[in-house]
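lol so apparently i was supposed to do this last week
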Amino acid sequence: MAIFLDKEHMVQAVRDFSVQVGADLVRLKVDAKRYTVVCANQDCGWRLHASVLPDKVTWAIKSLSEPHSCHRLEHNPMAGIKWLAGKILDQVRANFEVPCQSLVDLVLDKYGVTVPKSTMYKARAEAVKEIQGAHDESYGHLHIIWINEGPANPLTFKRIYVSFDAMFKGFMKGCRPLIGIDGCHLKGLQWMLAICNSPRWKPTNFPLAYAVVSEESSDNWDYFFRSLRLTLATAERMMDFYE
Ligand SMILES: [Zn+2]
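anyway here it is w/ zinc ion bound
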């Protein structure tokens, strides 16, 4: 008897299974206690029944008919954009521009499902959206560290400045007394990264400090320069300023 952490986990497993065996499933009985699906092909007779266990959280597959053997679907409607996005998340996280063709090959190899390139293009965009949503959430948590404006003000990321002790020591010991400063927009994010580099060995740059800010503004540049001045003035310990 297969056991699942919760209903969502179980439904996801059934969906993966249906894609793998190339079947379109129809939900027969679905409520808080039961989940029964059958093959959309009425001549097939394949059926799966799952129900919730007495703890009302864990689900189990109680019965499963013979191995599914009817005609395999070439384009499975169960393999929708959301489903695909979930399956390619790791590849997209490693490279937002991973070629759609290699993702098409990946799901064909792993799940035996053929997906049009145009569908995969949408799935990749959906995966990027999910990953960036996670970034938004992470930066939201950062804000909690240094500002507590009360429940009336929604928490949003503002800015962070970082210059570690090792960066300063490296600058003092291995770099010429010259500092170059530049900013750029972070790919896929609305925030700007300001980096302070001290070139020593061409063409290498040595980072002395950096900041991530919500937008490019004179206020944020002012913050960056004030923080950098503090780094240069008090360099004995690790610096990590929040504001
Ligand atoms: Zn079938």
